[in-house]
Amino acid sequence: MLEGSDYYVGTATDVLEALKTLRHSHFDMILCDLKMPNMDGMSFFRGLKGEYQGDNP
User: Fold this and answer.
1) Burial, 18: exposed, middle or buried (Cβ in 10 Å; 0-12, 13-18, 19+)?
2) What is the dihedral of CA 30, 33, 35, 39, to 10 degrees?
3) CA dist 54 to 20, 31, 47, 48, 50, Å?
4) Which residues contact 21 (CB under 8 A, 6 or more apart)?
5) What is the pTM of this model?
6) Fewer CB within 10 Å: N-end or C-end of the chain?
7) Helices (H) and strands (E) in the chain, counts
8) CB neighbours of 18 closer than 8 A, spacing ≥ 6?
9) Closest alpha carbon to 9 in 42, 21, 43
10) Rounded distance, CA 18 to CA 5, Å?
């Protein structure tokens, strides 16, 4: 749906791949599952908030 609206859509199959992608790319919005292997979605977002605190409005 977003790809058809000329948005760049990146995907990851797990948390580790997502974190690696985020270190090399900028995203304006992130969607993720709450239940994932290795880490739940809320922990993932808390980790991002701590790592990228100054980068977000």
Assistant:
1) buried
2) -20
3) 19, 20, 13, 11, 9
4) 10, 12
5) 0.65
6) C
7) 2, 0
8) 12, 32, 44
9) 21
10) 22
| pLDDT tens for each residue of 1-57 | 666 677 888 889 888 898 888 888 888 889 999 998 888 999 998 888 877 665 554
Question: What's the structural domain count of the chain?
Answer: 1
Domain that holds residue 8: 3-55
Alpha-helical segments (H) within the chain: 15-24, 41-51
